[in-house]
Design goal:
The complex is a heterodimer. Chain A is about 70% helix and about 0% strand. By secondary structure, chain A is mostly helical. Classes of the chains: A mainly alpha, B alpha+beta. Chains A and B meet through helix 7, helix 9, helix 10 and helix 22 of A and strand 2 of B.
Chain lengths: ~425, ~120
């Protein structure tokens, strides 16, 4: 039970790991998801301040649950003095249990942690709310950190989290795990939220890394955690592999001035070979097990890109085959667009342009900057620089990402100057 | 494809237009606007709502010899100018449009909805 000294990095990693276990234990005991979540956050904060100086206690999880339970008791008491009607927790709990802090007796329930994650990704919540709640309740990030990561004021994020917590704790938190088709559906929502967190982190501007957490790293950490809970799920493994294989390219994706480097021009020596090796091994072990889903297929596509020494070495027929499967598994106009590019690389730009022309039947798609950018690229490959330049410019006008808009506008002017020469 | 996106909503007007609202209707007009702000702040979607002062209080500023040089203006060509602006952070463009349509006077005057550029660095 003796405390041992630890660095603040080690403490933070441990706290983030314990966050969902502590919250699940509290909600199990007291119900009242939103009160428990506040108390759990306060306990994490207290530990973050104390442990680096005083050492990690012998039973860190028990310490956190005890402190959080006390905070909860205090909170309930102050609520009671303010509004005597609010006695929900006290009524639901024998007073002795509220006053005597619980010992670290219950083992951290794997299912409880999973139920917590399912709850945070509840279908009644909008995706920004699902993301914010997952990062706070399961990821153990503070509201200020989440607000900074999304570039919104802390008050706005606090409202979003508070509203989300109330929405899922309204009828009492449900710890029963769904089964069958319902479970597949709920797990898909969870994976989508993790994927969105990864993409936010993957794409968001690099802020002050001390205050703005790297969301791509957080998404990878949470997906690793989920994989430990569900080691046999192919799509969980597929999503983790996809994240590793995509994040591996991050060092090569931007120049020091922040401008974007497309895949074809990236310095592949900058790719993180360790992540590529891990992601490739993971997806290679997962695919043969059957039940191939969209994340596994996207990971496989990323793996084929990552193993090519140069753009010219890319195994495009294999990528096209994987896109064929992906289009069947999860039909989506953006998948079709990516497939059109793969078709162009295998059968020539005209064949790719024909597929894009079909996608233009959807009005929203026809005006989307991604379609315009892909069309521009294929027109350029076909040697039609005038049309390509016009398409790049149209794409730039429709892009809402500033770095992407700059990149597209640059392509337009590059091709325009080629023509005028 | 879903990521929280910021949108700017703009409402235009001028003194003439506001003067046409009878005095006894003002409390209700203000209450409706306050209710709109409260409702969308509570969901964590409305980041800020700001009204602008009258155009006579607006100034043009340039830098001359490193100092601010302030002149009257702008002298607007248009009859209406920006009266208020709202910053949203929402799930989708559809959601931004819904909130814009919920603006108290959206049945009478259109609300301008502008996507705000972000710093996302997509994989190209």
């Amino acid at each position: 039970m003796t405390a041992r000294s630890a660095g603040s990095g080690e403490v933070e990693d441990l706290l983030r790991e314990l966050a969902p276990q502590v919250l699940a234990a509290l909600v199990r005991r007291y119900g009242q998801f939103h009160l428990c979540e506040d108390a759990s956050q306060e306990a994490l904060l207290a530990a973050a301040l104390q442990w680096p100086a005083e050492g990690i206690p012998g039973h860190p999880r028990g310490w956190l649950i005890t402190v959080a339970s006390r905070r909860l008791t205090d909170q309930v008491r102050s609520e009671q003095s303010r509004r005597t009607r609010e006695e929900q927790v006290a009524e639901a709990t024998p007073p002795s249990e509220l006053l005597a802090p619980p010992a670290d007796t219950e083992p951290a329930g794997r299912d409880d942690s999973l139920a917590l994650l399912f709850g945070c990704c509840h279908r009644d919540l909008s995706s920004p709310s699902q993301i914010a709640l997952t990062l706070r309740a399961v990821g153990g990030l503070s509201t200020a950190q989440i607000a900074a990561a999304f570039g919104v004021p802390e008050a706005t994020m606090a409202q979003r989290i508070s509203r989300a917590k109330q929405a899922i704790s309204g009828s009492g938190f449900d710890f029963s795990l769904p089964s069958g088709a319902e479970r597949t559906e709920r797990l898909r929502a969870v994976l989508h939220v993790l994927y969105l967190i990864f993409n936010e982190g993957y794409t968001a501007s690099e802020g002050d890394t001390l205050t703005v957490p790297a969301l791509s790293q957080e998404a990878i950490r949470l997906t690793r955690w989920l994989r430990r809970l569900l080691p046999d799920d192919g799509e969980v493994a597929g999503l983790l592999a996809l994240m590793l294989l995509t994040d591996a390219r991050r060092p090569a994706r931007t120049r020091p001035d922040g401008s974007l480097v497309p895949l074809a021009e990236q310095d592949r020596r900058l790719w993180d070979q360790e992540m590529i090796a891990e992601g490739t091994a993971l997806i290679s072990a997962t695919l043969p097990r059957g039940e191939v889903g969209p994340y596994q297929l996207q990971a496989a596509i990323a793996a084929v890109h990552d193993e090519a020494k140069t753009m010219a070495d890319t195994d495009w027929p294999q990528i096209l085959g994987l896109y064929d499967l992906l289009e069947l598994a999860a039909p989506n106009p953006f998948t079709s667009l990516n497939r059109a590019v793969a078709v162009a690389m295998v059968r020539g730009p005209r064949a790719g342009l024909e597929i894009i022309a079909e996608l233009e039947a959807d009005k929203r798609m026809a005006r989307h900057h991604r379609l315009l950018a892909a069309r521009a690229h294929l027109h350029e490959l076909a040697g039609d620089t005038a049309v390509a330049s016009a398409d790049y410019l149209a794409a730039a006008r429709r892009a809402t990402s500033l770095p992407e808009r700059r990149y597209l506008a640059l392509q337009a002017s590059r091709l325009a100057s080629v023509r005028s020469r | 494809m879903i990521r929280a996106m910021k949108y700017l909503l703009l409402i235009y007007g001028n003194q003439e237009k506001w003067a046409s609202i009878p005095a006894d209707e003002w409390p209700e007009v203000i209450a409706r606007q306050d209710a709109f702000n409260r409702k969308h702040r509570a969901t964590g979607e409305l980041i800020g709502a700001y009204g602008l002062a009258d155009e006579v209080q607006a100034r043009l500023v340039r830098r001359e010899n490193g100092q601010p040089a302030v002149t009257d203006g702008p002298y607007l060509e248009t009859k209406e100018y920006i009266a208020s602006f709202y910053l949203l952070d929402v799930e989708s463009e559809e959601r931004a449009h819904q909130i814009a349509a919920d603006m108290p006077f959206a049945d009478v005057d259109p609300v301008e909805v502008w996507p705000v550029l972000h710093e996302a660095k997509p994989d190209l």
